Amino acid sequence: MNVVHARHGPPVLSLGLGILALAAVTLLLARPVSHVLSGPAAPAGYDVERMILVYATLPRLAIALLCGAGLAASGAILQQVLRNPLASPTTLGIDAGARLAITMATLFTPSLLGLGRDMVALLGSAASTLLVFILVRRRGFSALSIILAGLVVSLYCGALSALLVLVKDRVLASLFIWGSGSLSQQSWEPSTALAWRLGIVALPLLFLLRPLSLLDLGDDSVRSLGLSVTRLRLTAIAIAAALSAFVTSAVGVIGFIGLVAPIIARLSGARRFGERLLWSTIIGALLLLLTDATLQILAGVSSEFVPTGAVTAVLGSPLLLLLLPRLNTAAPPTSFAPAGRGTATTLPRVPALAAVAVFVLLVTLTVLVGRSPTGAWQIVSIDQWDQVMIWRLPRIVAAAAAGALLGVAGLILQRLTNNEMASPEVLGVSAGAILAVAVSLFMFGSLAPVSESVVAAVGGVVVLAAILAFGSRSSFAPERVLLAGIALNALIDAVVGIMSATGDPRAILLLGWMSGSTGGTTAGDAAQAGMAAAVLVAVSLLAVRWLAVLPLGGPQARALGVPLARSRFLLLLLAAVLTAAATPVIGPLTFVGLMAPHIVLAMGVRQPLPALLGAAAAGAGVMAVADWLARTAAFPLQLPTGLVAAMVGAPFLMVLLNRRSTFP
Amino acid sequence: MLDRRQFVAGLAMLPCLPRPAAASTGLRVAALDWALAETMMALGHTPIAIVAASDWNRFVVEPRLPSGIADLGLQPEINFELLASLKPDLILTSPFVQDLEPVVQRIAETLRLSIFEKGTVPLARPRALARVLGERLGHAEAARSLLVTAEHTFDMYRERITAIAPPPVVLVNFIDARHVRVYGGAGLYQNVLDRIGLVNAWAGTTNYWGYSTVGIETLATDRDLRLIAFEPIPADTRPTLQRSPLWSRLPFVRAGHVSVLPSVLMFGAMPSALRFARLLVEHLERLPR
Q: Domain B4-149 in CATH: superfamily?
């Protein structure tokens, strides 16, 4: 029975989807088609209904099928090549690179877009894909590492796009729409062009089908064919990236089809790679067609502009959450364990003093050096002291406190998950905070009288509860919790995308909040943030033993008497609370939580206690410098500190990661 | 010889000229919203600082921003240190930036004026803005004359529109090659159309601020109308649309009833309303009839 079920699963599922899609399409087309058929064969004037049917509705259905097919095929290939059930154009950051490239082209070389959005998007995709691979190349391409690297690159591209939108908001309305994937069409040209492109790119797949399916049996069987595994992988990845980049360049970012369709194909019983590719493609095409046709029917009812890509993401991320427990995502532990064990170093005395001196010097400089009203660089003088300190000191203190909180949260998460790409952003707590602020902004118009921080804290806590509830089913297996966080981040990104795509001016307010503005921080706010940092960092010191033992792996930790589920729960809780305390100050995206532990590692500190204190200090230092840059770099423009931290921090982090990968 | 038309057009430009600030309170005013800044300037009171000054000439276009006005930076990320050092007497805010009020109140007194309001009388909000600012800044007389001139100007535009009897218009911004933002509802543009007697052919709904984002296919119609697109138009829009039968066969496109106007501040006040009316009427008059 089971075999029969497995064999017929995908066709039965596809048939079901096909019937649903057909029903929706019939409902959508019934009126215009009957109108066209009842009218004259060649109408004299401009027959609106006929023109819309022929040049808008039908090409839109065609492009939905093509985009769904292209993305799903891309996802199926990526999942096969990377041996990773969660690989997809979205999770690998392929979309994000295209998005950033289009943003930059729109801003700096608009004429380039006239020549072709395709090339721009393709270049962007290539760059972001390459970046992800550079980040994980020495880490055995483990499932979680690639996904996390993809997420970091996506978040980084997103942060950079956001900064550009903020600085140039009036020009970039198009990017909200583009980032949410609207399928609206006015001719057959885009779908014809896309069909050609996808067809040509997919052609070599016919020859790669057999070697790619051999990957199921291990790399050796591919080698036995006389093929280079690396070359096979790279070719297949290039094809997958091109498929998704062509789709993205044609209609924008369509979330999650490329992830969900192959997962559904696999779970419904498609075993071999050829089957999976075929059925993923069919399921992806039908899923997007169904979603878009339904959306068009509903759009007749409500007048709000809702882009299809954001809808698929909103539907796709909960689906991912549901499917997660059924996927085997176990990855071999990487990173800390080999380097960390045995080479435990205590912080040498002199470098420790030097580090403290550098930290104090940096923070002092950020307070003293600024720009005068005319823009000239100056060291603050005594008579300006009051004036400047009312505005400058609170923001520096708050930013530094947030940096310390996130640095410690990052250290805890990286040790807990044994993954050096883990960061507080990934948990989803900050995403929950954004969503709460977004909802309150759009429902109540303004954030007053309830302050943003309160709303954000509520959102963060709700998400935290959800994460913990979700995690308890897997006794807080760290990778499950992180993946749930990723799904949540995507969901919130999509919701914010839908809110923004209509061009609502409040979207800019939301972006402003998300970007981590420290501008109006009062002395009271700063004191609060400082207190929170002091208390929570002190509490974290209690967890030092767990942090030393947990990276050794579950069994060893248990053998050493650490209660696994309870310690994981408490550490996750602690990381989430640390993050929630920092988010209202500095926004959801800083990467400082990712960076600070790596700075400490690069200094050769591995023991938990000095590492924890070091991460707090490094986080605080990075944020103080980011705050200073935000204040002075583009004077009189003030940039959002959170985004500046991401801008400065991410490249720095990439260099660090790259250097560390050359360690034995 | 000046005919009546030129004379009134000249009058309309008067508020844009610098005036002696004799009756002025001489307050040092910072404006956190462009609509308030342009109204102040029309009253002859130059603000000492505004937000996003570097973008002004690109989006507001006229009047050009006088030199010596400090740039407070991005609207969501105001340079408080700079604002404080300028020691303003009064800071003008709008509901859009009201969350900043607790912060800027540490620097000076604030006055919140709403730019936008759903109303039945066209341009009621811009008028009220001019009056309130006139009172507060000691330019009541200037405000009165601004409003009188504005009404005369709009009346004249209305007559000129009646004379040329143009078809209904659709006002859009091309967002990319596939989407437009189309204006109506309670927005400034619709207010001006109502005031000068032009019909908006867009019958669809709009959001609270008076615009709607739609696919370009939504503009398909067999009616005669004139499409008016504001600059800037993305580079790939025109070539893409020319290749679309849905677009190129549209009656109003075949008839060449597609115009491009310079950018007008959508969230503007009386000066932007006057400028939009002038650009629109002068453009429509220049067209062959």
A: Nitrogenase molybdenum iron protein domain (3.40.50.1980)
